[in-house]
Structure formats: structure tokens, C-alpha cells
Amino acid sequence: MDLAGHLRTIPDFPKPGILFYDISTLLAHPPAWKECVSRLADAIQPFKPDVLVGIESRGFLTAAPLALELELGFVMVRKAGKLPGPVISHSYSLEYGEDSLEIQESIIEPGQRVVVLDDLLATGGTMKATIDLCTKVGGNVCAGVCIIELPDLLGRSKIDVPVETLLSFSGA
Q1: pLDDT-derived band at 97, boundaries 50, 70, 90
Q2: Which of 4, 50, 123, 134 could be a cystine partner for 112, CB 3.0 to 4.6 Å?
Q3: How does pLDDT run across 69-86, given as a tens digit for each residue?
Q4: Catalytic residue of the set 39, 69, 95, 102
Q5: Above pLDDT 90, what percent of the chain?
Q6: Using an 8 Å Cβ cutoff, are 134 and 116 in contact?
């Protein structure tokens, strides 16, 4: 099945000059979404994770069904102030400023094997920050997995673990 045919691109979103790859149309097509989840599961299994970490918010859409399918734990990494209870924060630099991500304290046990998921790998900043955060709380991050990669933005070069993606779009 051609998963790329189930994506929609939106020019100039969220700002001029950006071509946004929208997975909403993929999610709305059950056979395509099922195939996508199956392919992601195949990409994840060789890493033998104990837990899947989804990055807010579209990473939740990939990690949660995969965790269920693979009988693994699912952990959310969110923007600051969105998770209840004690959290561990990690600040990171953006192109024009700084941002912060959080994870609940003790949600990942020291040494647990972690795969981090998101819908898209672009510049790699958020994926790298999430990997750093998971490592900070004792996780052994063994891979990052995404549906889409924009290789021209060189995000993979910032990531110190193997990265698996299903689709790649150059010239974006």
C-alpha cells in the first residue's frame, strides 16, 4: 500500500515557507492507518523495547496503538505544565529561542529500553531533546522511529541512536 498517497500537504502552514505533512488523512483511512501501524511495529521490534515514548502530540498517535499492539508500556513526553504529578524537565534550544519538555518522574525505570516515536523528523531538535530527557531519567534509548522524514533538514544528524522512518520526502 502506498502510504504517501494517504498524506496531505499544506503549503505555508504553520507559517509561510513551510510545507506541512498532515497525517490526518492517513489516520482517517482505516486500512492505510492499520498498514502504517504494522510497518512501524516491524521497524520497532528489532530494538526490543520495554516502553514506547510518544512526543506531544502526534507522537501519541503513533506510540499508543503500537504499545498496545506490541504489549509494551506507553509514556508521554509533553510540553511544560501539561503532565500531573512530579515531573522532570528538559530545556532545549530552538532556531529562535528555547522550549521545554517534561516527563513524569519515575515513569521510566532505570535501564528500561526505550524507543521514541513521533510522526515526523525534520530538524531533529524535538527528537534529540526527548532522547536526552529519557536518558536523564535513566532510560536506555535504543532508537527513534517516525512515519515521515524530511532528510534535507538534516535532523538525523543530531540523533545519536538509530532512526527508522517509513517515508522520506526531499526538496520539502
Answers
A1: confident
A2: 50
A3: 999 999 999 999 999 999
A4: 95
A5: 92
A6: yes
Q: Which of 58, 78, 102, 164 is catalytic?
A: 58
Other CB atoms within 10 Å distance of the CB of residue 25: 13
Residue 148 contacts residue 61 (beta carbons within 8 Å): no
Q: Give residue 94's pLDDT band: very low, low, confident or very high (50, 70, 90).
A: confident
CA dihedral sign, ordered 67, 61, 106, 110: positive
Name the fold adopted by 7-168.
Rossmann fold (3.40.50)
Q: Give the type of residue at 58.
A: R
Radius of gyration of the chain (CA): 15
The three-state secondary structure class of 163 is strand
95: annotated active-site residue = yes
Q: Which alpha helices (H) appear in 73-159, and where do they start and end? A: 125-136
Amino acid identity at 150: L
* Distance separating alpha carbons of residues 17 and 160, to the nearest angstrom: 29
81: left (phi over 0), alpha (psi -120 to 50) or beta: left
State phi, psi for 169 to the nearest 5 degrees: -125, 110
Whether the predicted pLDDT of 172 surpasses 60: no
| Residue 78 annotated among the catalytic residues of the structure | no
Burial class (CB in 10 A: 0-12, 13-18, 19+), 97: exposed
Please name the amino acid found at residue 37: V
